[in-house]
Every structure is written in C-alpha cells, then in structure tokens.
Amino acid sequence: MSMQVCIMTPDRIFWNQQAEEIILPTNTGQMGVLKNHAPLMTALDIGVMLIRTKVEWTSVALLGGFALVKQNKVTVLVNQAESPSTINAEQAEKTYQEAQRQWVEATGAKEKVEANFALKRARARLQLVKKR
Amino acid sequence: MAQAFAQMVGGRCAFRGDCTAFSARQAPMAQRGALQVVAGLKDTRDRIQSVKNTQKITDAMKLVAAAKVRRAQDAVVNGRPFAENLVKVLYGVNQRLRIEDVDSPLVNVRPVKNVTLVVVTGDRGLCGGYNNFVLKKVEARSKELAKLGVGVKIVCVGKKGSSYFKRRLDRFEVSANFALTATPSTKEAQAIADELYAGFVSEDVDKVELIYTKFVSLISSEPTIQTLLPLTPQGEICDIDGRCVDAAEDEVFKLTTKSGKLAVEVEKRTTDTSDFDASLIFEQDPVQIIDALLPLYLNCTLLRSLQEALASELAARMNAMNNASDNARDLRKRLTLAYNRKRQAMITSQLIEIVSGANA
C-alpha cells in the first residue's frame, strides 16, 4: 500500500491519487515523505512539488500553502496549483524576467511585498517547465 | 375640405410613413374619424409587437440567469473540501497555539488610520437594485468612517462599481479595480488578496473591510460588511455587528425545482473541528505555519464572497427579469384588448356606413 496524496485548491480538488514518494517545498527546504511517515504538519513555500507514482515522477507548482501528513494520507492545501502542461515555457521565462526587473526596481514597502510574491511565483513556474 | 383633411393627416405624418397614400386618395370627410382609429390601430399593433419582443428577451435572460445560478452553486460545492480541511486544520493549530502569543502580519491589530473597502458589485446591469444597494452601503460606510476621521480607500470588484467610482473620483480614492468575470476563480481571488495583503502588511491601511451581497435566498440577499483584515487568530471572521461569519458553520444553497418552480434549499453544515493528534509534528515553528495558513484563509474567504456575490447578482437578475416578463405579459394583454376593441369599433362603423349608404 502506498500513500494517498490529495492536492486541494480553493475551487477544486487538483490531484487525488496514490503515490509512492513525494518531495515537498517546505518553508525550511525540501522534504521527502515516504509511506508510514509520522503525523506531520508543514507550511509550504511557493515552489515545485514532486510526486512519484510507481516509477514516474510528476511535478506540480504550488503557490503557497501547507501540507498535513497523517496515517499515510497527505493533504496539501494551496492557493493555486499548476501542472507543467498548462504553462507556456516562453511565457514563463518572460514573466520571470519581468518579475525580476520589477523586484529590483520596487521601492515602496507595498511594491516590495508585491514584487517579491510575483517573483517567487514566476520562479516556481519557470522551474516547473525547466524540469520537464 | 380636402385641404383641411390633408393638413390633419399631415399632422400625424411624424409617426406614419404612409400618410401620402391616404391624402392622395382624398377620402371623404365622413371617414376622418375612422382613419384616426386606423392610425391608432397601427401604433397599437407596433406597440404590441415591441412588447412581445421585449418579453422574449427578458424571458431568455431569466432562463440564462437561472442556469448560471446553478453553475455558481456548483462552484461553491467544489470549493467545499478545501474550506472544510482548512477550517479543521486552523482549529487544530489553534488548539496548540492557545497558550502562545501569535504574531503574524495578518493578525496585527493596530490603531486604524486608513481603511480599505473592498466593494463587490456586478459586471452588468439589468438586475434590479443589486448594484445600487451595495453602492449605497459603501456610501454610508465611507461617510461613517470619514466622520471618525479615518481615511477610506476603495478596492473595487466588478465593472458597475468601477464606473460608479470613476465618476466620483473627487470623493473616493480608488486604489485598484478588478473585474468579477463570469466564474470567479482562485486567480481573481488571489489577485485581490495580493493587493490587500501588500497594502495591509506595508501598513498603508490598517483595516480591510469587505462589502458584498450575501446570498440569503433566491428572492432576498443583503449587502453585508465584513472585516477581512486583521484576521483574528481564532480564524473567525466577524461582521461589524460582531456576528460570526465563519466557514465552520457553512450554509450551502441548492437550487432545486420544486413543483416546476425554481427554489432554493439552504443546508447548514457544521464542520467537525476535532483536535489534532498529540503526536503531530510541526515541521516549522507554529507561528510560521499560521503564517502560511492565514493567507490561504483570506483567499478562501474572498473567493467565497465573490461566489456568493455572483450568486446574489444572478438571483437578483432572475427576479428582475421575472418581473419584467410578468409586466410585459400584462401590458400585452391590455394592449391586445384595446387593439381588438378599436378594430371592432372600426369594423362596426364601416358596416354602418355601408348599410346607411345602401339605404340612401
């Protein structure tokens, strides 16, 4: 028996399948979870999550949230999740450059916070398409 | 005599295209009264046709709105598992944190100098007083806040509100505009939440209030004011009267067809908010986890409000269109009656003329 992985976004269930192994982008670095993991709760950064079903690795971009591991059931709650097939590589690259430029140029406190978020998101998307 | 008649008919030419044909025929004076009726008859006929067309449109709009309400309801149902899990975890974490002092940027309560009002209106009109009610509430609230010496900024969702505030830029400071779109998704909610989050964290604003239309039933919905930020660490969101509007006690509305008519069933659900395992490991500092949780909660709440506002708008449109159709039906009936009366009167008078002509 493997783990049940369920990724939920506010508008739907994004992913609900069995998996052998997952790697989560937590706030304190990447963390792998195998079956029979101890109950755990972690905050997730904006980044890429890796899921291994049998032999194949799948990657999903998670845009901020948290994960709960409990009795071989992993519940991931995120604001937004994206799979590589929905992201245009060129677009992602462009957005990333743009975000980086804005991040450098941002001056006010509010702009800084906004730019930081945009940059992180663009980076996660870019990572996702690069990995494919 | 014929001249005078032509003048008279000419007076009606403004809305009769074929008056030349009539004056050319040089009808005898006796027919003048009848002719006037003919003019009235065509007008009435045109009027009936136009009412008929309008009724068709309003009927169609009503059906479209009804179908969309159903979709809006599906969206709420799809968001359910997320909201349930979120509330569960939030309560669980809270249990653990009860002793500790939570210090997250989103729960930071400070003296209020500036308030952002998030105004949720529709993108379209023809929905009765829906947009107006919300905007009136905003006017009232901003006056109230101004009286307290608090600065007011507007974040507007929906085109109707944007155009309203655009015309009143001298009185309102609008910091951002968003479209509502036909199906509010996480993306829209996220964009709005980012704006609010950035404003709040950078201390540009000290409080964020949401003004939207709460969906009560298909025939009634009320504009509501809700405090979005700062969040209370208990994960409870209260409206300004202190009533708790929380996702834990969630109402789902269901559109059903009861005896051929559309009806709404409200179903109240209370999420099971049991404690966590004592053995649960917190990978990070609980405060950090709360930090990750609360933005999610903010998003989730925003999305729900958007969905609810959309459902209210559609319901309001459904009602308005229903009334319009009813009115059109009524008007058509009355016009048809008047038309038939006039027609019959005309036939009768013509018959009398023929008979009296034959007699003479």
From TrEMBL, chain A:
<comment type="similarity">
    <text>Belongs to the ATPase epsilon chain family.</text>
</comment>
<dbReference type="GO" id="GO:0005524">
    <property type="term" value="F:ATP binding"/>
</dbReference>
<keyword id="KW-0406">Ion transport</keyword>
<dbReference type="Pfam" id="PF00401">
    <property type="entry name" value="ATP-synt_DE"/>
</dbReference>
<dbReference type="GO" id="GO:0045259">
    <property type="term" value="C:proton-transporting ATP synthase complex"/>
</dbReference>
<keyword id="KW-0150">Chloroplast</keyword>
<keyword id="KW-0472">Membrane</keyword>
<dbReference type="InterPro" id="IPR001469">
    <property type="entry name" value="ATP_synth_F1_dsu/esu"/>
</dbReference>
<keyword id="KW-0375">Hydrogen ion transport</keyword>
<protein>
    <recommendedName>
        <fullName>ATP synthase epsilon chain, chloroplastic</fullName>
    </recommendedName>
</protein>
<dbReference type="InterPro" id="IPR036771">
    <property type="entry name" value="ATPsynth_dsu/esu_N"/>
</dbReference>
<dbReference type="GO" id="GO:0046933">
    <property type="term" value="F:proton-transporting ATP synthase activity, rotational mechanism"/>
</dbReference>
<dbReference type="GO" id="GO:0009535">
    <property type="term" value="C:chloroplast thylakoid membrane"/>
</dbReference>
<feature type="domain" description="ATP synthase F1 complex delta/epsilon subunit N-terminal">
    <location>
        <begin position="3"/>
        <end position="81"/>
    </location>
</feature>
<keyword id="KW-0934">Plastid</keyword>
<dbReference type="InterPro" id="IPR020547">
    <property type="entry name" value="ATP_synth_F1_esu_C"/>
</dbReference>
<keyword id="KW-0813">Transport</keyword>
<comment type="subunit">
    <text>F-type ATPases have 2 components, CF(1) - the catalytic core - and CF(0) - the membrane proton channel. CF(1) has five subunits: alpha(3), beta(3), gamma(1), delta(1), epsilon(1). CF(0) has three main subunits: a, b and c.</text>
</comment>
<keyword id="KW-0793">Thylakoid</keyword>
<dbReference type="Pfam" id="PF02823">
    <property type="entry name" value="ATP-synt_DE_N"/>
</dbReference>
<feature type="domain" description="ATP synthase epsilon subunit C-terminal">
    <location>
        <begin position="86"/>
        <end position="129"/>
    </location>
</feature>
<dbReference type="InterPro" id="IPR020546">
    <property type="entry name" value="ATP_synth_F1_dsu/esu_N"/>
</dbReference>
UniProtKB/TrEMBL annotation, chain B:
<dbReference type="GO" id="GO:0046933">
    <property type="term" value="F:proton-transporting ATP synthase activity, rotational mechanism"/>
</dbReference>
<dbReference type="Pfam" id="PF00231">
    <property type="entry name" value="ATP-synt"/>
</dbReference>
<keyword id="KW-0375">Hydrogen ion transport</keyword>
<keyword id="KW-0139">CF(1)</keyword>
<keyword id="KW-0406">Ion transport</keyword>
<dbReference type="GO" id="GO:0045259">
    <property type="term" value="C:proton-transporting ATP synthase complex"/>
</dbReference>
<dbReference type="InterPro" id="IPR000131">
    <property type="entry name" value="ATP_synth_F1_gsu"/>
</dbReference>
<comment type="similarity">
    <text>Belongs to the ATPase gamma chain family.</text>
</comment>
<protein>
    <recommendedName>
        <fullName>F-ATPase gamma subunit</fullName>
    </recommendedName>
</protein>
<keyword id="KW-0472">Membrane</keyword>
<dbReference type="InterPro" id="IPR035968">
    <property type="entry name" value="ATP_synth_F1_ATPase_gsu"/>
</dbReference>
<keyword id="KW-0066">ATP synthesis</keyword>
<dbReference type="GO" id="GO:0009535">
    <property type="term" value="C:chloroplast thylakoid membrane"/>
</dbReference>
<keyword id="KW-0813">Transport</keyword>
<comment type="function">
    <text>Produces ATP from ADP in the presence of a proton gradient across the membrane. The gamma chain is believed to be important in regulating ATPase activity and the flow of protons through the CF(0) complex.</text>
</comment>
